[in-house]
Amino acid sequence: MAEHLKFKGGDPGAVKHGNFINYYQFNSAKNRLELLPLDIWNVNRDRNYICLDIGCNSGVLTQELFKFVSGCLPGGSSCHILGVDLDPVLIERADRANDFPQNVTYRCVDYMQDTEQMVPQFLQWWGRAYFDATFCFAVTMWIHLNHGDEGLRRFLVGISHQTRLLIVEPQPWKCYRSAVRRLRRSGEEFPEFAKLQLRGDVTQVIEDILLNECNLTRVNTETHCTSWGRKLLIFKNTR
């Protein structure tokens, strides 16, 4: 049973993987777009621009990202986005509400256990070795809580190797504590939480890993914090 159904009638925030059933009702997708710069989506004319949205939930933000990026590309370029989420109910919703089926694709994938290699297959379909842009909005905390410090590192290294541009919205430590409390009240625990050594300013931790261990370069563009006070980090892979 999907976790958002399991806790229906209880605390709607007590989910183990961030798969909130009505996420975009309390965290507007369009507000995220206001934080994105207009001048970083470099692409050659007449070239497809291939994106990945990890943790796409019901696809609302994925479609907004498609419209936003498409509007930034030069004439002749076409944007195509793969949205992945581990919750089949949310992916079904995303498919039903997809207004751009020729350009936006949804797949039920646990990125950390993509046994069917759906993400690499999407790249192969477009004849590409890496994505032009990868979006990770409010995903890193759930990776960290469920897969530990090494899992977070593995995730960051993995996505950095397969993208040219990386946009990350990390959750601060106070969000960790809130997620742990809510899940505990439901009778469950995050088994990795007590073992975490990467604590405190996790946004800085993530930035340090991407800069020093993944060898990405920070894009020097100013972005405002989200309405929840989160930073938006943008990196590029100088491949």
Topology:
Elements: H1 3-6, H2 23-26, H3 29-33, E1 48-54, H4 60-72, E2 78-85, H5 88-96, E3 104-108, H6 118-125, E4 131-137, H7 140-161, E5 163-169, H8 173-185, H9 202-213, E6 217-218, E7 233-236
Number of helical stretches of at least 4 residues: 9
Mean pLDDT: 88
Overall shape: it is: globular
Regions with little confidence, pLDDT below 50 for 5+ residues = 1-9
User: How large is the share of residues in beta strands?
Assistant: 15-25%
Q: Could you describe the 3D structure shown?
A:
- The chain is of the alpha/beta class and 239 residues long.
- Helices cover 38% and strands 17% of the residues.
- The chain has nine helices and seven strands; from the N terminus they run αααβαβαβαβαβααββ.
- Strands 3-2-1-4-5-7-6 form a seven-stranded mixed sheet, with helices on both faces.
- Strand 2, helix 5 and strand 3 (104-108) form a beta-alpha-beta unit.
- Helix 7 runs parallel beside helix 9.
- The longest helix has 22 residues, at 140-161.
- Residues 1-9 have low confidence and may be disordered.
